[in-house]
Amino acid sequence: MDIVISNTSGDPIYQQIFEQISAQIIKGQLPSDTCLPPIRTVAKELRISVITVKRAWEELEHAGLIYTMAGKGCFVSSLQPNVLNAKRNQLAGEKLAKDLEYYKTLGISLEEIIAMLKKNYDKG
Amino acid sequence: MDIVISNTSGDPIYQQIFEQISAQIIKGQLPSDTCLPPIRTVAKELRISVITVKRAWEELEHAGLIYTMAGKGCFVSSLQPNVLNAKRNQLAGEKLAKDLEYYKTLGISLEEIIAMLKKNYDKG
DNA sequence: ATATTGTGTATATACGATATATACAGTTTG
DNA sequence: CAAACTGTATATATCGTATATACACAATAT
């Protein structure tokens, strides 16, 4: 499970986990019915509480990306590529709409945003 | 004072206020030494506590955008246009760098981001 | 069968950030 | 100098996040 927790980002841990796992599922890196690692294992690896991992798993289940079998584990849902792609576009679109509000508030033009994007995209 | 509070955005009230006032200062809509309205007035208009407004004012002061005279009020700092522009670019740049992380996590290409931007920029 | 080990779940709690009401202190103004 | 205005400080409430610990269910080895 490739998860990286940032303590400086300000985003809640459970949300960081959700974003990373959901992205992996949406990109097809975690095929249908793949068994996610036990929450205790993830908690130990990341040195956080099992409850926090469970919270992330709950969000994933609520988003329809995984399903739970009590006593067995959690598994990646069976979703068609077009459904995954729709979810991808939805997540990106919602985020972009909100991000745009801030840039507009600051009076940044479309051209300026694009210029900054091109400068930054290949860095980081 | 043009301030709009959203209860659905998830962002703290004081932060929403900070972002909007700082943007107005940075864009030159609030000239140097303009007296901000009393925190009680803003609190009454927005139907929030004076403490929350004060919190926003504190952030503005900490950012060097306003200064306080006890008993008199809070005023817009005297900053040169190039300083304001630097602050604008800094705020936008930091935000964009963080936003980009998420798009990259979702595997969105630079071209896709630009396409979404162009579709959405003139809406909202 | 049943004890053991592994899975997710529920309860009760701690902590920090946000937001609040109310009382306080400094400055202007009549 | 009193009244009316400014920002400030203290103590409190509430909510989201994160936690430890105890619980319930399923698989599996004996």
- Beta-strand residue percentage of chain A: 5-15%
Strand order of the largest sheet of chain A: 1-2
- Greatest interface and its participating residue counts: A-B, 34 and 34 residues
Taking the sheet with the most strands of chain A, its summary is: 2 strands, antiparallel
Average of per-residue pLDDT values of chain A: 95
Shape label of chain A: globular
- Helical fraction of chain A: 55-70%
Number of helices of chain A: 5
Low-pLDDT ranges of chain A: none
The third-level CATH topology of the largest domain in chain A is Arc Repressor Mutant, subunit A
Q: What would you call the quaternary organization?
A: homodimer
The CATH H-level homologous superfamily of the largest domain in chain A: Winged helix-like DNA-binding domain superfamily/Winged helix DNA-binding domain
Estimated radius of gyration of chain A: 17 Å
Which sequence of SSEs, written as H and E, runs from N to C of chain A?
Answer: HHHEEHH
How many separate domains of chain A? 2
The CATH C-level name of the largest domain in chain A is: Mainly Alpha
| Termini gap of chain A | 22 Å
Question: What does this protein look like?
Answer:
- 2 copies of one chain form a homodimer.
- Chain A has 124 residues and is mainly α.
- Chain A folds into 2 domains: 13-76, Arc Repressor Mutant, subunit A; 81-120.
- Chain A is 57% helix and 6% strand.
- The longest helix of chain A is centred in the last third of the chain and has 25 residues, at 81-105.
- In chain A, 19% of the residues are buried.
- The mean pLDDT of chain A is 95.
- The interface between A and B is medium-sized, with 34 and 34 residues.
- Chain A binds a DNA duplex (30 and 30 nucleotides) through residues 12-14, 38-40, 48-52, 54-55, 57, 68-74.
